[in-house]
Structures are given as structure tokens and as C-alpha cells.
Amino acid sequence: MVQAPPAQTDATVTLRDLVEEINRYELVISEWDTHQQAIVNHLKNAIETLHKEALARIIRSVKQESIKALRNAVEDEVVYGVLRYHDLVKAPQSPLVERIQHALAEVRPMLQGHHGDVELVAVRLPDTVEVRLIGTCSNCPASALTLSQGVEQAIKQRCPEIEHVVAVSTVVTPHSAAEDTSMQHEVAWRLVTALAEIPDGGVLDVKLEGHALLFSRHGMNVTCFHNACSHLGVPLDGGEVKNGIITCPYHHFRYHLATGECLTVREVPLQQYPVRVDKGRVFVQLQ
Description:
Number of helices: 8
CATH architecture of the largest domain: 3-layer Sandwich
Number of strands: 13
Number of domains: 3
Strand order of the largest sheet: 5-6-7-11
Largest sheet: 4 strands, antiparallel
Strand content: 15-25%
Order of helices and strands: HHHHHEEHHEHEEEEEEEEEE
């Protein structure tokens, strides 16, 4: 029997020390029976829900008093690690994304002067950027000119490696959904990618409107999950995929990609999003 390790008390302990301590306790729990493990996981989920709500309220309060103080706090690796685990802070942007955002900021005052705006939807490496025109710019007869002479030019000036700037619709309804009257009150479908971009038998990670998504494909069947292991919330896209099962690269929790079922602890499945495939295009509902 593995003995539980003593608790860390050093105030200078690092994030790595804390994670390693968690791993040691997990090793102890791994020797328990499934019923005991399930109880621990339910307790863990309840505590994490409480902590996330408390942290969210602290962030809202600190923002009102001093955004600088909040930024200083997030620079601490332990604070940042916990907030990232609870999806309360965004991952750092890549230098390319930062340059694209700067380019959009340059043209935004001009668009806002005409009651419009623009937002970054996705970066399709190596050379394509997808944007969304908002407000009057989305249906203006001159929107193509706005895109080519305004948005596109600004992006290419700051990002010469980008060759294509594509405007996507705010809401896209697949053909099959439009024909089905029972779908009229559903949440809008978002166009994400082409079916061919998802490896058959593999996975594709996508960032869409602040959501970290993980797509899996087997032939024409596509599933989509929140790209986070239900165990400790780490990304799954770097994990091994074999026989329709993905294994978390950190602590080896295993998930069935057809259903999201966790094969390690069945009480903690992946969060799943509705998916629709229409004419070689993949759509997702985010709510």
C-alpha cells in the first residue's frame, strides 16, 4: 500500500511542487476500488465548483478596484495556473495573433464610425485569416470593398505571411437544418472547418469564439468536445489516439471519442458539443 505523502507547508513552494504533490495523492487513490474513486471524484468536482465561483467573484471585485492589481496577481505562476485550470483567464496569444489584433484595432475606428466592427474568428495556418464583419458592415453593399481595402490591407501590412483574408458569416445555417422545421428554435450553428481538415481516425483542435474545441472524425461521423481532460483540465489534443480512444498526455485518463465517455473514471465524461456536417463543412453549436 502506498502511503499518503505529508502536506507541503513551504510558502515558497513552486507550481511544479504542488502538481507533483497532487500526483502523489492520485497514486494513492489509484489503488482504491472504483466506488471509492468515484466518491473522491464527486468530492473533487464539488470543491472545484465552489472554488471556481469564489475565484470568479474575486476577479469581478478586483477588476472594479484595480485592473493593474489583478494583472500583477496573474503574473504569479501558481495564481495563473489555477485560473487557467478553471478557464478564468485566456491563454497567451501567439505573436501572429497579437499582430492581427493590432491590425484590426487600426481599422476598427473607421468601421465603428459607420456603426460596424470586425472580429478575429480563426487563424488557419500557414497563410489564411478568417474575420467576421459586425453590425452594418455585415450586410452593407460595400462590405467586400471594406474587407479588401480596409481589413485585408491592414492585416497584410502587419502580417506579410498572411495571403488570404476571408470574411465568414455571423450565423450560418446548414442546408439540412433549414429544411427541418423542428430546428427553428435551436441555438445558431457556427461554421468551423472543412470535413477534410479533420484527420480520419484522428483529432483536430480548434479555437472558436473563446472555446477550446476538440474534433474527432471517423469517416463522415464527427464529434466535438471541450478540449480539456475532465481530470485536471489539461488539453487533450497532444494525447495518443488509437482505436477511437484518446489518452490524456499528462495523467493518462482515457476517453472514447465517439461518445466522450471516460474509460478511466466513468463519472467524468468529456463535455460534448452538437455537431452537424453539411456539404463537406463542419458546424458546431456552442451553447
